[in-house]
Amino acid sequence: MSVARIEQLRGRIDALQGAPTRLSVPVLPVLDGLVRLRTGSVYGADSAGLVMTLVAGASQAGEWVGFVGWDDFGVEAAHQRGIDLARTVLVPRPGEHWLEVTAALVDVVKVVALRPPGPVDAKSAGILDARLRARSAVLVVQGEWPGCEAWLGLESAEWLGVGRGEGRLSGRRGDLVARRGGRAAARSTVLLDEGA
Amino acid sequence: MVLWCPDWSVRAGLLELAETEVEVAAEAPAAVLSANRVTVCNAAARAEGVRRGQRRRDAQARCPEVVLLTDSPERDARWFEPVLAAVEDVRPGVAPLRPGLLAVPAPGRFFSRGALSGEEAAAALLSELLVDAGVWDCRFGVADDLFTAERAARQAGPQECVSVPAAGSAVFLRDLPVMALADDGPEGAALSDLLRRLGLIRLGDFAALGAGEVANRFGSYGSDVWRRVHGASQTRLASRTPPPELARSVPFEPPLDSAEAVTFSVRRTAEEFVAGLAARQLVATAVRIEAEFDGGLSARRWVHPRCFTSRDLVDRVHWQLQGAVITAPIELVRFLPEIVEPAGDHADGLWGGGAEEQVVRGVARVQAMVGYDAVRVPVRQGGRSAADRQALVPWGERPAGLRPLDRPWPGRIPGPAPTRVFAEALSADVVDLSDAPVDVSVRGAVSAEPARYRIGRHWVPVAAWAGPWPVDESWWLGDASGGGRSARFQLVGVDGRAWLVRWLSAGGWIVEAAYD
Fold first, then answer.
1. How many angstroms separate the CA of residue B306 from the nearest CA in chain A?
2. Are residues A160 and A125 in the same domain?
3. How far apart are CA B249 and CA B266, in angstroms?
4. Mean pLDDT, to the nearest integer, of B403-429?
5. For residue A5, is it within any domain?
6. DSSP, residue by residue, chain A
7. Do A162 and A130 belong together in one domain?
8. ipTM of this predicted complex?
9. What is the pTM of this model?
10. Which of A48, B96, B263, B394 is deepest in the core (most CB within 10 A)?
C-alpha cells in the first residue's frame, strides 16, 4: 500500500474522530505533481475547461460535485473529462443568492465549482472558508478569489488539429502553471481536451 | 353473466373528443383506425357502408362526415372504468374482460320477479343503472361459461338479455355460424376464416370433427373452441379487487389565502397520505397535487427521483402555490398518487447511501432558496449542435423525451466538445480579407477564407479555422424559427481562444459555444 494511501486513510480516521483535518481529494493523473486538492481550501483556475479538469478526479472517485453560476455548462465536455453527470448538481443562475447557494452546497457536496458574478470581498470569502473547513469540502473558483491556495492557468497554449479551412480541433497543448502564494510556480507541458 | 357494450373504443373516443374539443354528437358516424385501417366503427358509420378492415380513404369515401379516431387501448380502458364502478356498486366481483366487456357472477334463480327470471331481472336493473350513467347500448348474455355468455350477449339487442339455459351452452353454440368466432381476437378471426374456407358453416359442423384431428390441425385455440362447443369448458371468473382509496384531501374552512398558511396546514394530510401508502407497502414516485379555489383549479404532476416523503409533498405544495396563478383563497388541497411502487425497491441499503441522502436534503435547501427550477441535473442527449446535445433537467424530475445518443447524427462536430455552451447564442460577424461577410453557398462552399471575426466589440484576426459542417435542419419551420440551411465553423483567434460559430442562411453569424 502506497504512502499516499496510508496518509489518506489516516486523514479519514482523524476526520471521523472530529479533528479538523485536511483530507486530500483525488485529481486526474494529468495534474499529478502540479496541484493537490485538499479539503478546506479554495483553488482558482482561469478557464472553464481547467475547472472541469480539476473537479473530474473527485467525481471519478465517486464524490458528488456541484457547479454554481455556470449558465453555459458544456455537459458533453464535462462528460468527456470524466465527470460523472449522475452525481453532478448544477445551479446555472443563482442570481444574488450565489453565496448562500454555494454555502448550502458546500455542506453536502465534496467539490463545488463556482463562477462568482463579480469581484468577491474578503468577508464573503471568509464565510465560505470557514464553512469549507468545517465541512471538509473543496471550492474551485473560476475567476478572482482572495486567498487562493493555488491558482492554475494554461500558458502559451495552442490548438491542435486545425488548419486554415481543414481538420478539426482535436486538443490543446500548453504549459500548465500552478502558482501558490510565495512559492515558485510549478509548470509542466500537457496535452488537454483530447476528445472522442 | 356478461355485459357487452358494442363498439366501445368508438364510444370512448367520442366521449374523450366531447370532453376536449367542440361537441360531437354521441351518435355521429365514427371509426377507430389503426395502421390506416378501420378496426371498429359504430352503427351510424356502418349504416353508411363503413366496414371493419377498410382503408381510411375508402371509409371517408363512403361517409365523408365520419369522425376518425386513433386507436388507444388506454383511452378505452379509462372510459370503461366508470362502467365497472357502476356495476360494482350493485354487484361485487366484477371481472373486466377487456374494454367494453365485463363479466359478473349471475344472481341465482331466487331473485326472479314475476315472469322475469333472476338473470333477466338483474340485467334489467343493470341496464337501467347504465343508462342513467349515459351508456345506452349495453347488452347482456347469461350462460354457464364466459365464452357462451359473450356469444349470447352479442345476439342480444340494446338493453336486452339473452339467457342460455343451464347445461344448454353446447346446444346454443352449435347453431351459431363459425363467423361468430371472428369477434374473439385475431386467433378467432383466423380460425373462423379457415373453417369457412373448409366449408364448415356452423359451429355444430366443427363440433362433429374428432378431438384428435382438431388438436392436430387447429392448435390449442381450436381444441379450446371444440371443447366449448361440446359444452365441456370451464372458465372461471377472475374478479377484480376494487383499488384501495389512496388519495387524500384536506378542505379549508374558511378558505386560506396565503401559500404559507396552506403549506402549514397540509402537513398532517401529507403525513396521512404517505402513511396510507406505507400501510400497503407502497411509496409514491409521482403525485398529482390539486388545489381548488373559487372558480379554478391548480393541478400539477410532480415526479420524485426517489419517492415522496411527507416533507417533499409539503414542499411541492408550496412551490405549486407560489408558481400558479391563484385568484381566490384555497378551499381544498388533494394528493393523488399517480405512480406507486413497492416500498422495498426504494428502501435505503444497510450500507452506504447516506451521502446521497445528504445531497438530496442539501439540494432541497437550495431549491427552497432559489426556486424549484434553479437546480438542474445535466444530462447528455443526441443532436447536432452543442446546445442540442445536452439537457438540463430540473432536480427532482425524471428526464423525459431525450433524443437517443446512439444515432450517428450526421453534421455534428466530432472531437472535444465545447466547455461553454451558450443557452442563447451570441451574435457575431465574420469577414474575409476584403471586409465582406463570409457566405456559404448551397453546395456548402465557403465564399472566402475568414480573416477576422468580432464577438462583442473587438475584431480578432483568425489564426486557424475549420469547417464548414453544413446542416439543413427543420427547413419546414422557416428561417425565423431557426430552421433552414446553416453551417458550423470552428474559429481560433490569434488570442488563443476557440469558438464554435454558425452561419445562418437567413444571414448573419452566431456563436453557439466556446472551447475554453
1. 14
2. no
3. 9
4. 88
5. no
6. --HHHHHHHHHHHHHHTT-----EE---GGGTTT--EETT-EEEESSHHHHHHHHHHHHHTT--EEEES-TTB-HHHHHHTT--GGGEEEES--GGGHHHHHHHHHHH-SEEEE--SS---HHHHHHHHHHHHHHT-EEEEES--TT-SEEEEEEEEEEEEE-BSSEEEEEEEEEEEEE-TTSPPEEEEEEE----
7. no
8. 0.87
9. 0.56
10. A48
Q: What is the pLDDT of residues B55-113, one digit of tens each?
A: 888 888 888 888 888 887 788 888 888 888 888 888 777 888 888 888 888 776 556 66
Contact A166 B362 (CB under 8 A): no
Q: Do B374 and A91 touch (CB under 8 A)?
A: yes
pLDDT of residue B147: 81
Verify whether the Cβ–Cβ distance B464 to A163 is below 8 Å.
yes
B397 to chain A nearest CA, in Å? 13
Residues of chain A numbered 32-71 and touching chain B (CB < 8 Å):
47-49, 52, 64, 71
* A49, A158, A195 ranked by CB distance to B415: nearest: A195
At B149, list the grid cell. 355468455
Please tell me which of the candidates B375, B376, B490 has its beta carbon nearest to residue A162.
B490
CATH architecture of B2-163: 3-Layer(aba) Sandwich (3.40)
Least CB–CB distance from A101: residue in B370, B380, B414: B370
- Other C-beta atoms within 10 Å of A162: how many? 22
What CA–CA distance (Å, rounded) separates B284 from B278?
9
Chain B partners within 8 Å of A171 (Cβ)? 416
Fold of B248-346: Dna Ligase; domain 1 (3.30.1490)
Give the β-pairing of A150-162 and A42-45.
parallel
Task: Select the residue of A49, A77, A159 nearest B492 (Cβ to Cβ).
Answer: A159
Do A112 and A167 have their domain in common?
Answer: no
Say whether residue A96 is in contact with chain B using an 8 A CB cutoff: no
Which set of grid coordinates corresponds to residue A21?
A: 483535518
Range of the domain at A179: 152-192
Residue where the block lists cell 412551490: B319
Q: pLDDT tens digits for B270-289?
A: 999 999 888 888 888 788 88
Chain A CB contacts of B355 below 8 Å: 64
Give bridge partners of residue B429 from the DSSP assignment.
B454
Q: Which residues of A touch B386 (CB under 8 A)?
A: 74, 76
Least CA distance to B366: which residue of chain A?
A: A101
Pair (A110, A165) in one structural domain: no
- Identify which of B110, B170, B162, B108 has the alpha carbon closest to the alpha carbon of residue B139: B162
Q: Does A161 touch chain B (CB under 8 A)?
A: yes
- Tell me if A6 is assigned to some domain: no
Whether A113 and A30 share a structural domain: yes
pLDDT in tens, A6-55: 877 777 676 666 555 677 888 888 888 888 888 888 999 988 989 999 99
φ/ψ of residue B485, rounded to 5 = -70, 140
Same domain for A137 and A157?
no
**Three-class SS state of B383:** coil
Query: CA-CA distance, A145 to A113, in Å (whole number)?
Result: 12
Task: State the CB neighbour count (10 A cutoff) for residue B145.
Answer: 18
Look at residues B221, B209, B157, B216 and name the one whose alpha carbon lies nearest to residue B184.
B221
C-alpha cell at A183: 512559492
Q: List chain B domain ranges.
A: 2-163, 177-229, 248-346, 420-515
Please count the other Cβ atoms lying within 10 Å of the Cβ belonging to residue B77.
17
Q: Into how many domains does chain A fold? A: 2
Task: Evaluate the omega torsion of the peptide bond into residue B254 and state whether it is cis, within 30 degrees of 0.
Answer: yes
* Predicted local confidence at residue A196, as pLDDT: 47
Rounded Cα gap, residues A132 and B109, in angstroms: 81
